[in-house]
Amino acid sequence: MGSHVLWVMFILISVQVVQILAAFSDIPPPPIRPDRFHSREELKRYLQLVHEYYAIIGRPRFGRSLIEQRSSLNDRRLMTSCTTIHVSC
After folding, report:
1. Per-residue pLDDT of the chain (89 residues; tens, 9 = 90+)
2. Where are the domains of the chain?
3. How buried is residue 53: exposed, middle or buried, by Cβ count under 10 Å (0-12/13-18/19+)?
4. Which of 21, 49, 70, 89 is positioned for an S-S bond with 31, CB 3.0–4.6 A?
């Protein structure tokens, strides 16, 4: 019985921490799409806002994981080449 209460309290505290951290995220909301575009300029402005939104949202993700993968592969290659050099000497 006591362990169930502890688990429930842990889950509730975890949910509250996640909600608090989500409130401080720097992700802007997506642009609001009008029901109807009345002019070409309005459509152009909306598409520009969508482009800027995805440029901001996509920036932190792209490239970082690829660079980390490449560096880890290079590190492995260096380690294997160093060990083969040391073994052959």
Report:
1. 678 899 999 999 999 998 888 777 767 788 999 999 999 999 999 999 999 998 888 776 545 555 666 666 666 666 665 555 555 54
2. 2-88
3. middle
4. 49
Spatial CB neighbours of 27, under 8 Å, sequence gap ≥ 6: 57
In angstroms, rounded to a whole number, what is the distance separating the alpha carbons of residues 10 and 52? Answer: 39
Contact (CB, 8 A) for 33 and 46: yes
| 43 contacts: CB under 8 Å, gap ≥ 6 | 37
DSSP for the chain reads: -HHHHHHHHHHHHHHHHHHHHHHT--PPPPPPPPSS--SHHHHHHHHHHHHHHHHHHHTTTTTHHHHHHHHHHHHHHHHHHHHHHHHH-
Which pair of structure tokens corresponds to residue 22? 């989500």
